[in-house]
Amino acid sequence: MKKTLVFVIVFFTCCAAYAQDACSNWRWRVKNLVDDSGIDWFNTTPRHTSLAHLDYNSTMAFEPEEMEEKHAGKGRLGSEKELVSLTCYVYDVKTGYKDGDYHLFLSNHKDGTGKHMDAKIPDPSCKGLRRYARLRNMYDDARKEAEVIKSWTDAGYVVKVELEGVPFRCFEYEARDNAYYQREIHPVTYLKAYLP
User: Fold this and answer.
1) Taking a C-beta distance cutoff of 8 angstroms, is the pair 129, 42 a contact?
2) Alpha helices (runs of H) in 104-167, residue ranges in sequence order
3) Is residue 185 helix, strand or coil?
4) 93 DSSP β-pair partners
5) Whole-prediction pTM value?
6) What DSSP designation does 70 have?
């Protein structure tokens, strides 16, 4: 009985440590740029684009066609292999999520019309990032800028930003901001606000 109890304690301790290591579990390595894609993100020139061009449309070769919970271990997709830059508006910033990410809610236009998308900045304190000092610093800088933006959006302003990041294929059925999206920017690697 004691051996079984010890095994159970060790098993759950290991599981908890693994979960904490990743801060989330669904395609964590891909969405935090620590997968084995071989892409040198620090020396990649971003392609300038817009939210309208990043939004999913039926002509995109998404593989698989539907992303579900069973794809949690899926590697980097072809649609996730570029760094993009865009100018858009942040109308809300949310923090306090279980995974530690900062969520930025983006709009094509200052009045909130046009395309919308989420962007996420990973938690640099995740143990899974401990060997990646350059990534941690990059996420930390972006989060500091997001905190300034949040102070303005909390006061009712919409903030124009320039950001860089990697398009990421979402888990299809995860609700975001009362809508269902198939793409987001995850991670945001650079963020600059043009404050009101």
Assistant:
1) no
2) 133-153
3) strand
4) 104
5) 0.82
6) G
